Amino acid sequence: MKDTIEKYEYHIFYSEEDASYIGTVAEFPYLSSCESTPKEAYVQIKNVIKDAMEVLQEEAREIPIPFIERNLYADSIEKVVHQLTVAANNVSNS
Known about the structure:
Structural class: alpha+beta
CATH class: Alpha Beta
CATH architecture: 2-Layer Sandwich
Shape: elongated
Largest sheet: 3 strands, antiparallel
Distance between the termini: 55 Å
Number of domains: 1
Number of strands: 3
CATH topology: Double Stranded RNA Binding Domain
Strand content: 15-25%
Order of helices and strands: HEEEHH
Strand order of the largest sheet: 1-2-3
Number of helices: 3
């Protein structure tokens, strides 16, 4: 589980409204942390994710696969390359 936690896509940003640093994880869009420093926000969101994963395991529910382990990026790149190739062929045939 620890290895998986390290592979998630974390985002830390400052919120003027909250006057705090917010930590989020792309694979768990419904979870966040709110802390006074970026480091604290990062540590806390990792703890939140660890706790969430434990609950999901206890409930025999699916744990999100880290984006880096999905083929989303490769598939997206292939689609974009294909679309650009088709568009280039259409332009050169005009």
